[in-house]
Amino acid sequence: MIEIKNLTKCYGDRKAIDNLSFNVKKGEVVGFLGPNGAGKTTTMKIITGFMAPTSGAVKIAGFDVFEDPIEVKRRIGYLPETPPVYGDMVVKEYLEFVAKLKGVPSENVKKLVDRAIEKTQLGQVSHRLIQNLSKGFRQRVGLAQAIASDPEILILDEPTVGLDPRQVAEIRTLLKELRGEHTIILSTHILPEVQATCERVIIISSGKIVAEDTLMGLGQKLTGGASVQLRVRRHADELAVLLRSLKGITSVDVAGQSLRVHGAGSEEIIEAVSEAAVSKRAGLLELSHPATELEDIFIQLTSAN
Question: Per DSSP, which regions of 40-101 are E strands?
Answer without folding.
Answer: 55-60, 63-64, 76-79
